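Hi U.,

Before I forget, here's the chain from the pilot set. I'm dumping it here mostly so it's searchable later in email.
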Amino acid sequence: MANCVASRSPSPARPESASPTRDAALLPLGALLLAASVSGWAQTETGTLAPVVVKEKRDRETQTYQSGVTSVGKTPSAAKDIPQSLTVVNDKLMQDQGKDSFKEALRNVPGITFEAGEGGRIGDSIRLRGFSVSGDIYLDGIRDIAQYNRDTFNYDRIEVLRGSASMLFGRGSTGGVVNQVSKVPRLITEHEVNVTVGDGNYLRTTGDFNIRTGDAAALRIGTMTTDWDGRAGKASTQRRGLALDYRLGIGTADEFLFSLYHLNYDDKPDLGGRWLELRPAPFPADKWYGADSDYQRDSADMATVMHTHRWADGSSLKTTLRDGRFKRDLWATQINGLAGSVTQANFGANTVVPRGTQTRAGEEHHTFLQSDYLTTTQWFGRKNQLLLGADLARERSARDGYTRIPARPSTTVGLADNSPLVDTRIRVRQTEFTSTALGLYAQDTIAITPQWKLVGGVRYDRFSGDFDRSGNAAPNNTPLSRSDGIWSKRLGVMYQPRDEVTYYASYGTSFNTSGDLYQYDANSANTPPESSRNIEIGAKWELWDGDLSLRTALARTDKFNERNTDVNQATGEFLLSGQRHTDALEFEVAGRINPRWDVFAGIAFMRAVIDKAGSSAAAQATVGLNPGLTPRRQANLWTTYKLTEKWRVGGGFTYASENSPISANAAALANRAPGYTRWDGMLEYVYSENHSFRLNVDNLTNKAYYSSLYQAWPSVAPLRTVRATWTGHF
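Structure:
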């Protein structure tokens, strides 16, 4: 896949057609947020921009698994210049592994675990170092909090920044943030088509069509279709995606990007099994206990306009406006508690499986406006890279429920009856949440000496939420509201004795408001935000002429005042009395060992502990326990080797030690999913310059393991899957 990498030429000249004066600079969007901040920096004399050299074609064959330049810190930087743990899963790695979903791509990141899609949520439910990041998912630096299952078809890379980062992103980010980076148009005409077939009647097609439409303009079109019968020919997926991006003024003083994105899917979901005697009940991994009438129908539609203005001195102002609308609707089968007489020893084909219903729906409408001003100055004889920014969010979320829900008949383990139900449900509106959030932030990176850099930043957020729950039954039908203002800080120091080596230490804070995930109750509406901090030391090295990146980090993340309901309070109001922490030690390597051998690997050691809890007996019983979804050890390895000019072989493993679900209940925390190692393999044949064939086999040993956990049930992962992909370039 070709990529666009822009770098400034040292030449002071540039074509006259692309040399507007400063007075003529257009700032139609940035002025909305940063006019006051930027006015002090603006200059009125006429200036010209140096030409931008655009290296258009970067073949995926020559690309490595390294991160390259990243924007997760809001300033374009090499990973070694970011004083925090950063993992980047790029397009080449996802392509080689045949990853088709956001969740599957993130299995390359030690420290990430997955909930089994419960707790009132739909879509990607992710934990990082044991802390939820469901509200900390971003798309091109803009919050992407909506509840849906994301697809990889339009990804250039996924960036995972660990540790508190509210100074950069606002509320949330206790464990870190996950930023999806989209493909953008380039000044070249080039196309790629992938067709994948596999077991379970899997068929996926993706198209990436890049068309140069002018000297400084290009159009990029991404398409996706995916169909899969899934487990036992029942649990399935049907996805469709389209991305349209038009980029105008590439490499000039004023650049615009206009984007439309659409994703919808119609799945039959699998909510998993059940815990039995503190272990997963041994339901067969090749069976599905839902009904043929089950579905999960979700959609995501986003429109984005981005404007970047560049000054001749290298300063820039980037402003992004995005409006997104999301719909979700779930009607699924859950396995209810097994009879008390059922044990691990007598569980078998005749065991009765009682079944219940999970059904919920909703709509979300999000509007975001964000502006970042970057400049480099000389203060007191020191080079300063300054970031000034502001973001404004208007988020509306409506949640619906259903009445007249038909009962689901029981079945048996061996029968797994999937007969459909007659849908007698009536959809009703239950709650509506409307919030407004404003953030103002500033950060400076100071070059104290050629070897030492200091990063410092501060941010102020104001979050206000109104919760209309008139659709609920009394007494839970009264309106609730809350408004909070809070400061966040970030501090880092880097020592770089050589260009290839960075040693760093960092400190950051974060906060979580009661309305982060668009709901209040009578208790949480009276509770101020939780607060967290992350302290980290680490080192990053670029080895073998920069072909291989190696990093290590030791981090401590504390959440000091988790919300707890304290029985000593007459009102039962939430108190900020909880505390827990995660200690993490990480190692990661990515890149090319030699011209034929690529590698991406990591290992994380984590120790998570509940330090304090509420005063109730149930809460106190959790003190000293692992809070769940934080296994002691996680590791991954993926490596490929080019045997000849036409043949390449690859493979690797994903490992996790014993794990438990997230819960505030000590009994649920006692449940344990066993550790596992999953092995994957790949074989690729390039049969012409523009065409190749790749075979991916996931879970080579056909091992049954549990990769997504909830306090009521574990979800078994897919067994062995075999998929073959043809790739064509035109």
